[in-house]
Amino acid sequence: MKNIRISYLIVLLAFLFSCQEEEVLYSNKAEFASIQIQKFDYGSLSGRGQIYQGVYSENKDTVYFDVTYYPDQEAPTFTDWQISAALPSGAKLIPSVTGVKDLTEPVDVSIVAPDGKTTAECALVLKIYQVPFAELERGFGRYEKLFELTKDELGGWTSGKQRACAVVGDELIVNALDGPLLVYNKLTGEKIEKTIPMPEGESFYEIFADEDGVLLATTFVSFSASTTPTLKIYRWINGLAEAPEIYYELPTSKIPATGNHGIGLKASIWGSTSGDAQIMLDIDGRGSADDRAVRISVSGGVPSEEIEVFNTGIGTVWSGKAVAMSKTGRTPYVAAMLGFPPKIAYSGKAGTTPFVTDPANSNFFNKIIGNATYFEFNHSKYLALTTASWPGNFRLLIFCLDDPALIGAGKADAEKYAKLNPLVEDAVFLSAGDAGDIAVQVQDDGKTALVYVLGMNTGVFAYELTNIGTSSK
Predict the structure, then answer these.
(1) What is the top-level taxon of the source organism (predicted)?
(2) What angle do CA 444, 446, 450 make, to 5 degrees?
(3) What is the mean pLDDT of each run of 10 residues along the chain (473 residues)?
(4) Scanning 26, 117, 353, 383, which has the fewest C-beta atoms within 10 Å of its C-beta?
């Protein structure tokens, strides 16, 4: 027994001596993961306008913010800047840079690394200087707001009736469900007293335009109807002064029923109805988790009688939107769930990639995606969409899709996210209805594009994108 006890003690002591105190290693990285500034707007109590990313100096003792303006613009001031900074997990910033700051003089800060020992001193320096005009080879640069008007200022709106918009020629067209289409000047938003012929007895939830500026509209049909209804797509091929033709008829008997709500609330097109195009119609699940959409191919101006019913890959449990991006096939496309929580994904040859929609790591708000549309401008590809928050804020986001590899990026990777999401603009008015529409018209000279955001029950705000950017010379 004594030998057993001695052997046990020897084993126990050997085990204890072999165990060393575990050392937890913390990073000694004392630098910003990302830092950016934006002008603070006291009216909306939030950041507004262009976001400027901070760039470290070579020896990392200074972060520079390069704020530029053009010869015909007033120079921005050094006051009223909102700073947003991200640090490695566990790091500390002394003093805090939250709140509205005056950057007339450099702001000195200390970054304490997660190890609690390593410290780096850094100065935040704002540089404001004028840059010459230059036409960009790709994409948009300078942009400005055309107008922002409430429903009362626009005139003609009734509660819950204005849900879609399209741009045709010099006019912005807004639907009115069971009433006449409303017409406004596309540059000013001024109401135009004009009657657009409508097919008798029809009501349109969705209106949109093809790349030739031809207006289209879809009827909405419910799968719960006792008879097999037929969805109709109307086309104003002879202009807005003439009655539209029935461009396409889709019997719902062609769509395998799974207890869906219906089809025709949301539609998209990429291409020309007189040439080649793809039309996509979302199947509205209304809580039944229907993840499908319908694709109609147009070749040589003739829409195919055969349709494709496909799963969008987004997992829609409410109303959704399938956004066509090809004139000849299904992919690429973008699919979004227009409900809570917001979900949106890009589908291409390499598969499906979701966008980061977490408000803490993106520019999305926390409630819903209102709508989305695809457009191409100055040799670049873009997705424009709206997002809303629970308090009722409304925001326009434009994503650049030239490099699909960036789509999964979040704000944690500030450089990639800035390339992916070059435009973030909030509406001044609050969006009571949250939903709505978005429409884009690229001008004939290819140098500007007009973007319109409609908030249901609230109004319209519009921006002009240009091919003018900072000269590299």
Answers:
(1) Bacteria
(2) 80
(3) 50 46 68 91 80 93 94 93 91 92 97 95 96 93 94 93 96 93 98 96 95 97 76 98 98 81 93 99 77 96 97 80 97 92 93 95 90 98 93 90 96 90 87 79 97 93 93 44
(4) 117
Give the CATH number for residue 261.
2.120.10.30
Tokens standing for residue 346:
């890009």
Q: For 176-193, what is each residue's pLDDT tens digit?
A: 988 899 999 999 999 999
**Whole-angstrom distance, CA of residue 274 vs CA of residue 244:** 15
Give the count of alpha carbons within 13 A of 107, CB side only: 23
Q: Which whole-number Å values give the CA distances from 90 to 86, 115, 117, in the listed order?
A: 11, 8, 12
Residue 245 bridge partners (DSSP): 235
Of 111, 131, 151, the position where a domain reaches its end is: 131
Q: 3-class secondary structure for 318-365?
A: CCEEEEECCCCCCCCEEEEECCCCCEEEEEECCEEEECCCCHHHCCCC
Q: What is the pTM of this model?
A: 0.82
331-to-111, 256, 270, 298, 346 alpha-carbon distances in Å: 46, 22, 12, 15, 9
Angle at CA of residue 298, ends 296 and 301, nearest 5° = 145
